[in-house]
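Hi everyone, sorry if this is the wrong subforum. Our group has a chain we'd like a structural model of before ordering constructs, and none of us has done structure prediction before. Sequence below.
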Amino acid sequence: MNIRTPKVKAILFDLDGTLINTIGDITAAVNGTLALADVKPIDEKTCMRYVGNGLKNTLRQALADANKSVSQDDFDRLLTTFFDLYRSKPVVVSHVYPGIETLLQKCVDSNLKLGILSNKENTLVNTIVQRLLGTFDFEFVRGVLEGKPLKPDPECVYEFATLTHVDASQILFVGDSEVDAKTALAATTRLALVGWGFKEAQELLQAGYGPVCNTIEELEAEVFE
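Answer:
Right subforum, don't worry. Here is the predicted structure as tokens:
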């Protein structure tokens, strides 16, 4: 087998919109919750605009865009429902993006350390990863935990660096959003954004973030010589 030379020693991936297309299952849970608040359902493209900063913010933005004002108590109840709905059906239509598994295997064959960092609830992250990418040995799979800051705070990136004994400069952070770009900048890792995720490639480039990889081959070129 021809194993190429890696440019880095470790890769830390975002989950939603980067490794796995989860938007269908997220949208279903959002719409099930909005129905209880007498709010019309949203489509997947709209839901994509609401993800990236944690599920609580996803629901908050969906309500705000519908001009639906609720009390804090009502919001908390809706949020509990949202989590319950999503936890009950986290992987109905969610699927790994084409080419990702092949890329991950090449990374494993090259002895790269692999991790996942998401702003989604930790239990959900681990459930989805186990069901769809359970054959791969990730050194670090982390979602939102109490007491741990969300991306773009770099704390969890540093935790991954410490765990894998890899300097931040030798880590490639791969994501699909401005939040991921800001995380990489804050942690001083290398960055590669993907154009098949929840944020438009043109949007990312106009915001000054890049490189944006529109194909798996382009992403592979950011990993290997």
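For your construct planning: The mean pLDDT is 96. The CA atoms of residues 212 and 218 lie 9 Å apart.
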